[in-house]
Amino acid sequence: MSDLSSTDCFICRKHRGDISTPGGAIYEDHLIYAGHAQIPEGHTAAYLGLLLVEPKRHAPGLADLTDAEAQALGLVVTRLSRALKASEGAEHIYLFVLGHHVPHLHIHVAPRYPGAPREYWGVRVDEWPAAPRGGPQEIAALCARLRAYLENEGRSNP
Ligand SMILES: [Zn+2]
To answer: What is the pLDDT at residue 158?
Structure first.
């Protein structure tokens, strides 16, 4: 971890609030931040439900996490996966760690929706032309539903 590299890091800047996340944080504590993916540049809509879960610390990859960060990350990913299935009707949840551009771990949590043709299963799931997509308003509504699901789950299953 270096302050020098985290100063310019897109993800660290997002956690500090310098860059806005569409729909705001879905989950946040002292170790973990989870939010919706940005609308890709040049587009007006994003693949709905494509989430990013990140350690707050500027850690490059899974191998760099502390046990506490790893446990927290796993729990958040699991709860978000449940939320995407229950609240958004996803039939399967993919997790990807690519990290080709930003040296700060971000786990892509990608729902696959019913009807997605086999050719789009896997890393191309967000390329399915008929997949649910939305702009800032739809993303904000989805994030609010996920937050509500997580809150209710926490209440019934402490
Ligand atoms: Zn960072």
So the answer is: 55
